[in-house]
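Sorry to interrupt, but I need a hand with the structure work. Leave the record below and I will have a look:
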Amino acid sequence: MKPQPATPNPFTNYPEALVDPELFRAEQDKLARVWTFLGFTHHVAKDGDWFRAAIATRSVFVQRFGAELRAFENRCAHRSFPLRNADRGNGPVVCGFHHWRYDKEGRAVGIPQCQPLFGVAPAELGARLMPVEIATCGSLIFGRFRGSGDNQTLEQFLGESFDVLKAVSNARTAPRLVKRVVEANWRLCFHANVEDYHPPVIHPETFGRHGYPNPDKVGYFRFGWHSAFFDDAAPDALKTMAAECRAETWRSANYRVFHIFPDLTISHLRAHWETWFIVFVQYRPLSPGRSMMHAWFYPAPFATAEPAAWYDLATRPFTDLFRKIAMPYVVGMVLGQDNVICEGQQSIARQLSPAPLLGALEERLAWYEEAYTECMQAR
């Protein structure tokens, strides 16, 4: 699909939600019911492994119990102390405040001095953790706080991207992570990821080194609340990629980016010669004016469409070592350039136009805001 001029102002609660605590809280309540990327199964490979994540502004954790994955809100049912206070770990679910212990169902099964202090046995007290509904797409774990009427499965939610993300997620090793706090609203951060007008100015040595994209040679695709950018203008390129991913015949050859509502960007990009990487970027909201950026990356799990040149193969031991050292820096540098722009916008958030002017290379930004409006208006 060729980029088209954006529709009239699709923005909702903008820019008020970037600064107003009440609007921000209402927004996050809605987003808590949306399927949200939490992390990778690589990080919960062993029994007892867990990692901490977030859905909207609510802290959660995912844990392996034998063959099962479970997720809960990260707060004790007793006095709401956070049960997990690190990014990752291994061990039983025990509160560090009063040593309440929970089982895989989230039930409090071990409560010190329960009978003399509460008058009943733990089972009779009935205390339990708030569950988080989770589902997987390949090695990707998504979760939500399911509400009444939330019957859409993860596969239905991801739509045409489900088979692509399943294939893309087949990392051979655990993804590496770069993270930082960004002093800007999460929505502004996502805006920088979902348009193609800024790279020549903001990323002149990387994504923008060839100038502005030629609208006749790129494809924009919209599916549900999500979108994608391909450096392939064929109208059926997304369907073709999905079919080839299902058949395990897709090969690394093109720069492609998927934007998954509400806050996830997945890029397939060339790092050097015929070496391709997958980069996941997520901006988790912390407050109206602050976000936490997480960027995971790993070598793309596909053979290349073009065979590697002899000099590429001959120097791989050295260049692989170089890329291992350089990739965290490059990922952090490129995203940092976007972050600076977002922080600049946040510094005058109350002055931002409620109806930004959007051109053809910002069409996906308009789509994103239309999805945001639908989410905010949902029951």
User: Anything to note?
Assistant: DSSP finds ten helices and 17 strands in the chain. The chain has a mean pLDDT of 94. The first helix runs from residue 21 to 31. The longest strand covers residues 275-287.
